[in-house]
Structures are given as structure tokens and as C-alpha cells.
Amino acid sequence: ERLIARARDPSESLAARQEAFGAVVRRFEELAFASACARLRDPALAEDAAQDAFLLAWERLDQLRDPAAFPGWIRRLVLTQCHRRLRGARLELLDPSHDLVDRADPMADCLAAGSAAIVHHLLARLAPADRLVLILFYGSGRSQVEIADWLRVPSTTIARRLAHAKRRL
Predict the structure, then answer these.
(1) What confidence tens digit (pLDDT) does each residue in 32-79 have?
(2) How far, in Å, CA of 1 to CA of 135, rounded?
(3) Which one of 19, 86, 90, 126 has the fewest beta carbons within 10 angstroms of its own beta carbon?
(4) pTM for this model (two decimals)
């Protein structure tokens, strides 16, 4: 909250405000990227969406009423950026070189492509909420408490979602 207040403070120099906002970005960038990646299923698009969300947050920082609401606000901005990208064109679930869905023998293709492609394929088939908790927990190394804070749900909900997502995976 102090960093947000400092980034918004007109009495601070521009450099000090940018430095404070940079610290905020560093704190939330992994969570923003993981949320975007879970939604878009494409790391490059997810990175762009997260960056655009942070740029928009910087431009509209004065519109944020309560600095404590920043985590939810940036999450909403990230999801809005994802939605804008999804509206424009239908995304491929996988890179065409790893397309396991339409092949005659998907099991042989899975074995040939390696475990990373298998995991990518299986994650792409999960619901966004399941994919998000798995990516945040295993991919970003976030604790259940951190994920719960980010999503603004009880940590018991995250534990349940993780168990559910692992079963589905």
C-alpha cells in the first residue's frame, strides 16, 4: 500500500514514482503472468497481456480509490487484456508442431513430443480456474496462502481447487 501511495504522490519526483511502481510490478508480475497464461494458454500472449495491464495500471493509477485494492484491480486489468486478445481471434490450444488433438495416434505423438508437450496439452484441456491454480502453485512456486490472497478467496478454497485440478489433470 505504501508503494502505491508513493507511486501516486504528486509531490514525489517522477523518478521516485516510477521506482515505486516498478517495485509494485516486480511484486505482482509473476501472478499477473500466471493469470494471463492460464487464460490465454500462450506464454507470449500472456506476457503481452500482463505488460499491457501494468501499463494501463500506471496510466490510471490515480483512479484506484484504495491502494489495498491493487491486487484485485491489477488482476481485473490482466483478465480484461486477456479478454481483448481472445475476442480478436480464436486461439490455437497448442502450437501446430505439438498438435495432439487431431492426430490419428495421440499416444504415440505424446511419447514422441516429450513430457513438456504432454503437460502443455493436459493443462490446455483444463478449465481456466484449474489451470490457474496449478500454474501459480507448481509453475510459479506460490504458496496456497499467496494464491488465496491474489484470488481473494479462502486458502481452503485453493487447497480444494488444487486437489480438484490435480485429479482432473
Answers:
(1) 999 998 888 888 889 999 999 999 999 999 898 898 899 999 999 999
(2) 26
(3) 90
(4) 0.59
Tell me if 163 sits within 8 A of 61, measured CB to CB. no
Please tell me the distance from the alpha carbon of residue 118 to that of residue 169, in angstroms, as a whole number: 11
Secondary structure (DSSP) of 44-113? HHHHHHHHHHHHHHHHTGGG-S-GGGHHHHHHHHHHHHHHHHHHHSPPPSS-GGG--SSSS-HHHHHHHH
Residue with cell 494458454: 41
Nearest to 46 by CA among 29, 24, 66: 29
- Name the CA dihedral angle for 61, 67, 69, 72, rounded to a multiple of 10 degrees: 50
Give me 72's grid cell. Answer: 484485485
CA distance 22 to 16: 10
Q: Counting Cβ atoms within 10 Å, is residue 127 exposed (0-12), middle (13-18) or buried (19+)?
A: exposed
Q: What's the Cα-to-Cα distance from 166 to each of 94, 130, 134, rounded to whole Å?
A: 20, 8, 8
